[in-house]
Amino acid sequence: MLLRQSEVEQKHRLSKTTLHRWLKDGKLTEHRTAGGHRRYDRAEIEKLLSISDGITVTEKDGALYARVSPQKQAENLTRQHERLIEACGERGYRMVCDCSEIASG
């Protein structure tokens, strides 16, 4: 099924910039109507969305992000991170990305 750019943006929350970058990188094929309008293959979009940096992502995958500010809250960052790992485990999520940071507000 071919989708208009606006449909891809709405259904998959992808920006025009992302679609054009994927086209430029050869990851996505565009189809043109007789009037020259772009169309994108839904299956191709969904396949690209399921792969990120070589990792196949499923509905039971999760990314952890923990952040505190300022440096004196570093202990809270450790505790926050441990709770996120525990929550993912309890819900059966596989962590595909894990990021923690201390940043100034």
Features:
7 strands, single chain, 4 helices, 3-stranded antiparallel sheet, 105 residues, alpha+beta, two-stranded antiparallel sheet, 30% strand
Task: Write a structural description.
The chain is of the alpha+beta class. It folds into two domains: 2-49; 61-102. Helices cover 41% and strands 30% of the residues. It is built from four helices and seven strands; from the N terminus they run E-H-H-E-E-H-E-E-E-H-E. The chain has helices spanning 5-12, 16-24, 42-49, 74-91; strands at 2-4, 30-32, 38-41, 51-52, 55-56, 61-68, 94-102. A three-stranded antiparallel β-sheet has the order 1-3-2. The chain has a two-stranded antiparallel ribbon with strand order 4-5. A hairpin with a 5-residue loop joins strand 2 and strand 3. The radius of gyration is 19 Å and the shape is elongated. The model has no long low-confidence stretch (mean pLDDT 84).
Strand content: 25-35%
Termini gap? 46 Å
What is the helix fraction of residues, given as a range? 40-55%
Number of domains: 2
User: Which class best fits the helix and strand makeup?
Assistant: alpha+beta
C-alpha Rg, in Å?
A: 19 Å
